[in-house]
Amino acid sequence: MKIAVLGDGAWGTALACNLLSNGHEVVMWGAFPDYLEEMARKRENFKFLPGASLPERLRFSPDPAEAAAGAEILLLATPTQFLRSVLRKFAPLPGVKEKLFVNVAKGIEQNTWLRIGEMVREELGGVGYAAISGPSHAEEVIRKVPTLVTAASAEPELAELVQRVFMNDKFRVYTSTDVVGVELGGALKNVFAVAAGILDGMKLGDNPKAALMTRGIHEMGRLGELLGGKRTTFAGLSGIGDLIVTCCSGHSRNRHVGEELGRGKKLPDILRDMGMVVAEGVTTAKGAYALARRVNAETPIIDEIDAILYDGKDVAAAIEGLMNRAPKQE
């Protein structure tokens, strides 16, 4: 198949290489032509995935029409807050609505608080759509470390198609029909990764982090079910699996934000120092808080992270607030 990767970040690059190893034709589109040209020349995504050599067969194009021409799949690998503008670049192209859109980003759109599947439907109508999520850091996928993910589509045959296209002996793909749960798991876990990073930055040890992850998966499932997902999905790869890896890994950008907060650094300074690297959990925290209020969900951890990020609440006071909640049965 020919597949166009929309986005020049780490995750899109790692998946492009995985697809090439499966024999597919892959072209990468990005919003910055100069950077694409330099990647093509150096054969390295030196900003987002330094040190990894890119195959000669990976092509690059800054032109949406050229990238999409003949492609059967458009892989959405653009950070959530920029994706709508990218969709609007591709929407007018001939035949684009007959293609399969596969989303691999993990977030909730600011202000609308839409999942990416909802955003795609709003911009493109009822196109073929699937989402991939799970414990899958790009830095490990590019090195062919064994990785397992879930591909979800409301149409089972599309999920199975994505499974066949992406799966190999280093990248195992399961299928699901619960797009809502898979997308929310991938988005919400980033909020808890910020919380895990705070605990690490404060050097509080293992006990609170294990408790955070345990209660976090309950909180994700409770909110996700009220928003239309299946509770069991959050016990799978796109829920607890992704939660574990992003709360524990040194590759996690969201955990990094939390670590810096736990060390006393201010959020604007942290984000400035990260440059173009996006930590989706920062925006998702506000979206998760808004969605929880919409469905009247109890989300104490999300509430405290939102207060830390957007109200300047002291991290120690937030932990004290969680510990002093009224006693209850597990």
Describe the structure in brief.
By secondary structure, this protein is of the alpha/beta class. Helices cover 52% and strands 12% of the residues.
Mean pLDDT figure: 96
| Poorly predicted tracts of residues | none
* Number of domains as seen in the coordinates: 2
| CATH class category label of the largest domain | Alpha Beta
Structural class: alpha/beta
The major beta sheet can be summarized as: 8 strands, mixed
Label the overall shape: globular
Helix content: 40-55%
Strand content: 5-15%
Q: SSE order, as H and E?
A: EHEHEHEHEHEHEHEHHHHHHHH
Distance between the termini: 49 Å
Radius of gyration: 19 Å
CATH superfamily (homologous) name of the largest domain: NAD(P)-binding Rossmann-like Domain
| Tally of individual helices | 15
Assign the CATH architecture of the largest domain: 3-Layer(aba) Sandwich
Fold-level CATH name of the largest domain: Rossmann fold
Number of strands: 8
Q: Strand order across the biggest sheet?
A: 3-2-1-4-5-6-7-8
